From TrEMBL:
Protein name as it appears in the record: DUF2190 domain-containing protein
Length: 127
């Protein structure tokens, strides 16, 4: 059995199922929204329902979750967010900070929903 941490957060804006989530205004609240860039500090992935603004939305913060892909990935790839909160392969650029939400547990293409080993962290490749 793989332990999983799932917690509900209030959505500040609509967020779909199986999307990468971030705190929408970390300085002022714990509300969440969809991640929109590979540099957003990510929180985890939403569950099967997502929600509208004001809804409580389950977010998997560690363990096995599911995520919608925004491009082609291979099994074992580190994943980050695209502009739509979907997961794409994290390809580090020298001198750039990047947020990684976890590791792909299966290969897939844009639109697929795959399992992910969720483990949000920052990634930096030196210049």
């Amino acid at each position: 059995m793989i332990p999983t941490l799932i917690r509900a957060y209030e959505a500040s804006a609509a967020i779909g199922p199986y999307k990468i989530a971030k705190f929408s205004d970390a300085a002022a609240s714990t509300k969440i929204g969809p991640a929109a860039a590979n540099t957003d500090p990510v929180l985890g992935v939403t569950g099967q329902f997502g929600g509208a603004a004001g809804d409580m939305v389950d977010v998997t913060q560690s363990g096995i979750g599911q995520v919608t892909l925004g491009g082609t990935v291979t099994a074992g790839a580190e994943l980050t967010a695209d502009a739509n909160g979907n997961a794409i392969a994290a390809v580090p650029t020298a001198g750039v900070f990047m947020s990684v939400v976890g590791k792909a547990q299966a290969p897939g293409v844009a639109g697929d929903v795959i399992e992910i080993l969720v483990g949000p962290r920052a990634f930096y490749r030196g210049a």
